[in-house]
Every structure is written in C-alpha cells, then in structure tokens.
Amino acid sequence: MRILKRVSALVLRRGVTTYQNSWSIKDCLFRVHPSVSQALAENKPVVALESTIITHGMPYPHNLNTAKEVEAIVRAEGAAPATVAVIEGEVHVGLSSDELEQLARSTNSQKVSRRDLPFIISKGLSGGTTVSATMIAAHRAGIPVFVTGGIGGVHRDGENSLDISADLTELGRTPIAVVSAGVKSILDIGRTLEYLETQGVCVATYGASKHFPAFFSPQSGFNSAYNVCNPEEAAKLLESTLSLGLQSGVLLAVPIPEEHAAAGQQIEEAIQAAVTEASVKGITGRDVTPFILQKVNELTQGKSLQANIALIHNNARVGSQIACALSKLKT
Ligand code: PSU
Ligand code: MN
C-alpha cells in the first residue's frame, strides 16, 4: 500500500514536473540586450519604451528619429533605454541601432498587443509592441518604469462596441508605472478613467494639479485621483505599489508642456473630423488608432506630429528622472 502510494505520488510529481518543464516560461523567447541586463544587474535605472509608436504611430523617418532622440534623452538623464519589440518571434527588451532602424523602416510590422503575442511568436513574425505587450516584457525583465506617448483607452461609443484597449486591463494586472501624456480625445476619457478605477489602477497627474491631460492638451475636463509634484514623489508612489505586492500598475499622466499645447484646439477639431471619417469608412478594431493618428496629422499639416514628438521627449525626461529617483530609493 505504502509502495503504491509512493508510486502514485511519483507519477503525480512527474506529471507536474513534465508539465512545468514543457510549458514553463521560456527565457529564450525574451532577449534582454546586454546594455539593459548590465544596468539591471548593477541596480541602475532603466526605462522601457514601446514600439507601436515606431511601427504604427509615426511615419518614417520621424519614427526613427524620435525613437533615437528618446533613447538619447533617457541616456542623458542617467538611465538605460530598453525599447521593446518583437523580432522574428522573440521579444526583445532593448534594441541595437540596426534593429531599431529595421523596425522603423519596415512596412509589414505587426501591431502586437497581449492577445497578439502568442500568434506572432509562434509564426516567428516581427512587430511593434503596444503598451500592453511592452508592459508584459518590461515586467518580465524587471523594469518598473515605462515611458510612452499616450495609452489606449475606452473608445467613443465603447459602451456599445466594447472597444476598450487591452492597455487598460494590462494596467490592472501588471505592476509597472506607465508614464504618458494621458489619453487622446479620440477616446472617451471619462469612461477610460472609470475603467482604470475599476481595474485598481492608481492614476496620478505629474504636476501641481490633478487635471488629467488629453495628450495634445494639458487638460481634458477630467481629473486624476491624485497628483505627484516631482520625481521623488512619483518614485515613492511606485515604490509603495511594488512594496504592497499589488499586481496592478500606476498611470502617471504628464501634461504636454504649455509651449507645445498651443495647437491643441486645431488638433481637437481635426480629431473630431477623423473620428467621424473612421466611423463612416467602417474602420474598426486595431486599425482605428493608427488611422486617426495619420488623418489628424494630415489635417493639421503635421502640427499634431510635432506636438506628439515634443510630448514624448518630455515624457522621456520625466520618466527617466522617476526611474533615477526610484533606484535611489532602493540603495
Ligand atoms: N495612442 C497614441 N499613439 C499610439 C498608440 C496609442 O497616441 O501609438 C498605440 C500604443 O502602442 C497603444 C496602442 O498601446 O496604440 C493602443 O491600441 P488599441 O487602441 O488598439 O489598444
Ligand atoms: Mn481596440
């Protein structure tokens, strides 16, 4: 009897072991660039960066130039940049300049969100990672600060279409600070904030007020739950999220600098027109955001692109300062 029990336990354990061996997370699918792994090993600040903005958010060569400028800003602030992308079926955390250039020039890159990762990896494809997929990779690599332009959200009429970006649920389940300029007014900002609250995401404006920014404008008419005034306060907020063991993330909303917000009204009008056109043309799903971004850029003769670049530069500065402040808290 005892022997029998033992045998069954062994089989059971074997079953579990076999299961774990076969399906445990494969590190080989995640490639961390040596510059990033070295910084992490030395407890130096690292800033994760997304790449859908490169593949789908901006036209070439602005995408490449901006990506390079952002990495340079991160370095100048004393942190290591880790741009995330999928290259031939592997998730890269940190890209070489050749890889960055190839991604920026490529015309057939996929837009890779959480739901797309399994397929893209299984087919050995390449693509730009959205906020959700970038969060997954950054968290896995041990990078708690991630800078982007804007996150996805609840689309207008989302209460009927249920078009709600996977970025929001990712923020609810991955403990990373996402530094962004808020949410574009192509989205339903009020519902986006409600959804983030439901997901348990701590939303804080970076600055003196709680005004939640609308990407191109420093105010959206909505407020964040909180505000933090400097990198140290932001770092402490993130530190408590991590120390509490919360599995949810933090959204830090950085208003576009005043000098670049001037074109805000004209851009707003272009957004209205682009949203209408997208709906008339029946554009849905993952194609909505890239379509609207491109249309708005056209309608504003490039002003939206300039504002977009300026706010990303600013976010990179702020995010890097937060990453530096956070690494000081650890030492
Ligand atoms: N918002 C922007 N620019 C972008 C995106 C959002 O202003 O490039 C990209 C980000 O990568 C974001 C993604 O994670 O679009 C959200 O797409 P969707 O709405 O399909 O979830
Ligand atoms: Mn969507």
Low-pLDDT segments? 1-20
What's the number of extended β-strand segments? 11
Q: Please, what is the average pLDDT?
A: 91
Gyration radius over CA: 21 Å
Strand content: 5-15%
- The global form is globular
Main β sheet profile: 11 strands, mixed
Number of helices: 14
Helix-strand topology string = HEHEHHEEHEHEHEHHEHEEHEHHH
Helix content: 40-55%
Q: Distance N terminus to C terminus? A: 56 Å
From the helix content, strand content and strand pairing, which structural class follows? alpha/beta
* Associated small molecules: pseudouridine-5'-monophosphate, manganese (II) ion
Protein name: Pseudouridine-metabolizing bifunctional protein C1861.05 isoform X2
Organism: Parambassis ranga (Indian glassy fish)
Summarize the structure in words.
GO terms for molecular function: hydrolase activity, acting on glycosyl bonds; kinase activity; metal ion binding; pseudouridylate synthase activity. With 331 residues, this protein is of the alpha/beta class. Helix content is 51%, strand content 13%. The protein has 14 helices and 11 strands. Strands 1, 2, 3, 4, 5, 6, 7, 8, 9, 10 and 11 form an 11-stranded mixed beta sheet that branches. Helix 6 links the parallel strand 5 and strand 6. Helix 4 runs parallel beside helix 14. The longest helix is centred in the last third of the chain and has 28 residues. 50% of the residues are buried. The N terminus is likely disordered. The site of pseudouridine-5'-monophosphate has 19 residues, from helix 3, helix 9 and helix 13.
